[in-house]
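Researcher: Let's try something more involved. This one mixes different molecule types, so please make sure each is placed in the same coordinate frame as the others.
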Amino acid sequence: MTVQARRHVWMGAIPLHLHLHSSEVTSLPAPPPFLILAPRNGYLPLLVDAIRPHFNSALPPGSDTIWFDYQGLPLKWNIPTGVLFDLLCAEPERPWNLTVHFRSYPAGVLSLCEDEAVKWNFINALKEAFYVMYGNTKSIMNMSQSDQVELWHCVMKGDLEGYDRLAARVKPAFGFGANVGRGFGHPPSVAETAITNPVTRAGKPGRIPMRMYLRMVDQDLNDLFDVRPVSSWDDVVYVTCPIDVPKRQGTTLTLRDALMKVVPHLFSSSPTISNEVTSEAPSVMRASSNAVHNEFNGIVRVQGIEPSLDLPLDWVARNLCGPEHFVHLSVICTLVAPSLPPGAAD
Amino acid sequence: MEEAAVMEERMGLAVVQACRALRQRHREEEGAHGPALAALFTALSRPPDGELHGKMEALQLELSQSYQKQSQLSEQLLHEVTGAQAFREQLVERENSIVQLQAELLGARGRVTQLEEELEKKERALEASIEEMKALRIQVEELDAKLVKAQAENRMLIDRWMEQKMKDAERLNEANAMYEDMMERFKGKTLDDLARAQVDGIVRHSEAGAEDYVESGMPTSLRHAMRAHDGGCSTLKFEHGGGSLISGGHDRLVRTWDTERGVPLATLRGCLGSVLDLAMSHDDTMVLAASADHKLYLWEVQSGRIRHTLTGHAEKVCAVDYSKASNRRAVSAAQDRTIKIWDLQTGYGVNTIVCHSNCNAVALTMDGDIVCSGHMDGNLRLWDVRSGKSASEVAAHGQGITSVSLSKSGNAILTSGRDNVHTIFDVRTLEAQASFRALGFRVATNWSRSCLSGDESYVSAGSIDGSVLVWSRRLNETENSLKHHPSAVLACAWSNVRRRLASADKNGGICIWE
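Model: All components are placed in one shared frame. Result:
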């Protein structure tokens, strides 16, 4: 089941409905909109080869880099497409209506996207993740050039098997090959497996690389259809937050624990034990159990799903991370956390 | 522990839920849209069905055909347009050329009118010239007529001339006959004379004139004084017959004078220089004049015409003498230090004698074989005429000899020199027989002529002071001094016939004394 989950994550794609921006239409009639499936773990500029031929005949002379906007907001190309979708489409919209631009690149808002910028962005993210996980980037730096290129090609194609094979070659602990074999067939054995597997322990990441995107909305989270669109990237906060993995045996962090640690203020009744989360396992347990009463005032999305906060972080890191090993959490929350009484949610 | 179990259970539930959510999401997103999109793309890229396909192909074919046609038509159009363009250009060109040609035509017309005008002018000129030619032709005809007339006249004149010639020839024949006759008589006379001379005991070699021998008398009075030559009279001679006098002067004329009446008889013209010396043929028919223009002129006295002009001297000819034996021979001396012997029949020089001193005076002996010449170095020289060689030489005077004159008999020769002495030499021995000088006497020029009287008893010479002195040979002293000339006396001459003495001065006057 988890194997399937991982495959779903890898195969995940968002249907895009692309319009050419009206200022760039030079043909009559305007070219019809273009439909395409964009991989969730991919990046928008990688679609250019498929999109350009469709609009080529309508384009004005000259050339520039392709870019996209959603409701007036230029989309950052260095954020995976799935994350953008989860974050910006408060209420999922399928297919996703985007406007495509081939001219007048907004260099002030977006960083320049040159030939291999997307690839380097990926590699850098990979390095960052490795640093977070192991404290160094040696294994990436030691990759041969051809392996690196092949890895990148696997990512672009969504070739999970090739990716896993390469990852295994780079470092036994890299990737999840060892665990994939065993799987998470039975949830009760999760913690056990993670602890007892010597290989895993040997290469066990010290921390889990997590990146959180926080979008504030001034509306009730239950009705997000008419939410005000994001007008500027200033309205979105995103942070890279490594989560320490407790060394102690028998302790399993959940997604809730991680969130408590990063954005404690989003919990309706902020527990006083926040400092103890990492230090004391029993208290964590208690906190987790107590957290039932602590309502999280926001929507968390990972890979297009809104997971239960009881989801073990370990599992999340293994199955819901992108190819660069980051776990992207999109969080939509109200601007001011409503101070609901603890029991109101029940 | 129970709590942990609960927790684990909850976590497992959450994982299951997450997996379900992922599947749900998959179904909603790529699972739902992927096949739809695939279907859409396959629909778009699916080939159209047969009928439509066939139709479309037909239509496409039609379209391509029509495209082809269109392209052909457009090509044709292009062709036509270019053709039209070319035609237009041609037209413009033609128009330009028409304009050009019109301009040329205008120019040509102008030229034509100009040429016509010129033609008219030319025609007029032609007419004028034709008229002129007519006139000229008429003139030519006239002239032809004149020519014919003149030819006729000429012929007539020639006839007349021939007639005259015939007459002349007849006369010449007559003269010859007469001459023959006279010669006959003369020979007879000579024989008689010879006989008589032998009877006298003296052999005389004299000419026919010797029979006219007359005793000379001392001239004492002036008979005539004549104004003869402008610029001076340099020479004068009496005819052998004695009747008339000839004179030559600086006015380039030779005149003959009647000594009796003192009037001029004739004037011989033709000489181009001053006449410096004269000679008369022994028969008095010819006069030979030596001129300063380097030539000698031979006149016939009768007609006054020049028979010959003798050329050959390079300087002025200062002396001349006629042979007393023959009419053909003459001798002349010039300032070019030559003495020339002439054949007067032909007018050619026969011989030339070159000497080192200028010759002022010459004389031929009676037989005409010896030339006596007086030179500037004061020597008297004798030359053989035939060989041209010096025969004899004598130092006669201290200074240059001015005159040499032979006596009538031919035995004595009188010379005068610039030492103012006159000497008589014996021709044969060249011994000085007598010499004359006088106080106050001075020879006027290098060519002052003195003379002996016919009987050889008197010597006369002109002085620079205008007096004419006469010496008696017998007394050997000055006998008379005749004074009338206003200037230096240049020449004097005795008449053979009558006792007359003629003298000429530098002013051109001639005095005849008796």
